User: Fold these one by one.
Assistant:
Number 1:
Amino acid sequence: MPSVIFPGPEGRLEGRFSPPRRPRAPVAMILHPHPHGGGTMNERITQHLYKTFVDRGFATLRFNFRGVGRSQGSFDNGIGELSDAASALDWVQSIHPESQTTWVAGVSFGALIGMQLLMRRPEIRGFISVSAPASMYDFTFLAPCPASGIFIHGAQDTVVPPASVTKLVEKLRQQKHITIHHDEIPRANHFFENEMEDLGRSIDNYLNFRLDPSCPIR
């Protein structure tokens, strides 16, 4: 999993990149939780998502937002971080231009940035949002949501009440031409401290479904 440095809007960005195993392999970009809460690309759910996509042969990148680790710049309340994510995707596409499909997966704050990026990049065809901060940020920008995906949340999350994610999912499910899955993990808190196995199973089950050649969602 080689360390990489690539240009961002405010200077260099630090990441870990796993090249694809085959030509035309899809891209996956993994976005970490809020920097002010200790979020980095080495946070364990972020690492788990990274490894999951690497194991499935994706060209996979996780990186530190500005001001985190060796990434230059300073926290910008989500605005600059969205620009970082766009630059990161540009960089992956520059070295793997034959890919036609991209997935984005984010944890907490990273889920917010991932969904915002989804609205701006039509090549993103799937998403995984873990602990999406639906009670903290306005997700009405998903109008309409352009791709299918899954929201995974802990039933015992005291940071973001599960009901706020359920409400968001119900709203998105009213839209046509996409399919939104929702998996609420019993006993899990915001960071799945004791329920990583269940989280991993949820992620794998969804990817098995979406990546099956017979899957109707594309």
Note: Strands lie at 3-8, 11-18, 27-31, 59-63, 102-107, 124-130, 148-154, 180-185.
Number 2:
Amino acid sequence: MFDCLVVVRFVHFVAVFILFGTALFWLYAVPSPERGAAALPISFAATRPLLRAAALVAAASGLLWLAAMLANMTSEGAGIDVSGLAEAENWRIFFLETGFGPPWALRIVLFGAALAAAWGGKTPRLRALAAAGAALLVSQAFLGHAAQGKLGPRGLAMLGAYAAHLCAAAAWAGGLPPLLLALTELWRSPRRGRGGEALAILQRFSVMAGVAAPLAAGAGAVNAWFRLGDALASPAASGYGRVLLVKIVLVAAMLTLAAFNRFACMPRLRETGYARALRVSVAAELAIGALVLAAAAVLGVTPPPN
């Protein structure tokens, strides 16, 4: 059950990150979505099925996560018994008498809103998807370790740090897929020259990432302090700390690639070698981002020492 829950959480994280970060990308990286669709038709067309798939996967994986939580709560002993899912009383108790119920009820509504925004017209409604994605990320803070601090000052700080960490990370990592699509399309199209439009998009993405990446790292550090407490001096002593160290190394690698993109590749974008290096670096950043989400999925089901 542990392995299945990790996989479900990982898939859900990826889908929601894409919903928020990819939709948001088209709201800041180009002057307007309409002009973006005209200037980057291939990239914009590829975004449509990506967002629709993300909405479907986010809803399906989210409901599986909900079912897994309820099965775990209603099982007796070490094993997991899913027969409790067929009992209406268990669902009533979960939604009305537990702290997890109201956030999950809200998330179900948000799944419906995301599906409607993604599938309700010829093109996904980007602002609605970005809003639904942001709300899903914030509501996620009420489902895990961050919700254990209750509603005092410490609890509110834990929830705020976790929500800020998720939203900033999703804006950064979730914007990488459309960025890579846009760079590839612009560089392969002879009628657009060899870097002007790509540089403009990169500059807008860089401004966003320049805020989001440090915020994600800083809020993540606050989360680590809350989770580890006195064990912060020797994080490798616990399973939670060891997974956290792996996540920190991966995030450091992403930050290194982001710095390489910004300070080495962007100033020399018109040079063929650096343009190719930039696309490879963004692809590597995206791949490492997926590994970061895998580590986060493991952390969510690993008891912290504090």
Note: The mean pLDDT is 87.
